[in-house]
Design brief:
The chain is mainly alpha-helical. The protein folds into two domains: 73 residues; 44 residues, no CATH class. Helix content is 79%, strand content 0%. The protein has four helices and no strands.
Length: 117
């Protein structure tokens, strides 16, 4: 658990560093500081991307082994399962309420727009 938490924290940190370096790269290019831009693009960014790939690979291995408690990505099956649960609940609940109210004490015929029957 702690190993997984540390790995996820490390991946998040690397992503934040990548974003910051991308901003630094854009800034250096805008100022015409080509030496700094090249150092960022071909040195620092390349190293951070390698670290990110290594971390994501370790996390994928943990997920594949079933060791991970927290999943970084949501699968299509998980989305379908939650969607199915959410869609069914309101329909079943509303259907029960409508059926119960419509036939209570003959009130369905007394409502405006309903035909006595």
């Amino acid at each position: 658990m702690e190993n997984e938490k540390g790995l996820l924290g490390g991946i998040k940190s690397i992503r934040e560093q990548l974003d910051a370096k991308q901003h630094d790269l854009s800034d250096a290019q805008r100022r015409g500081d080509w030496e700094r831009a090249a150092r960022i693009q071909y040195g620092e960014l390349a190293e951070l991307r390698k670290q990110l790939a290594d971390g994501e690979q370790k996390l994928a291995a943990m997920n594949a082994d079933g060791q991970a408690l927290v999943h970084e990505e949501v699968t299509a099956e998980q989305v379908a399962e939650v969607r199915q649960q959410v869609v069914r609940r309101p329909r079943l609940a509303n259907a029960g309420r409508r059926a119960g109210k419509a036939h209570e004490d003959g009130r369905a015929a007394a409502r405006p727009g309903c035909r006595p029957g």
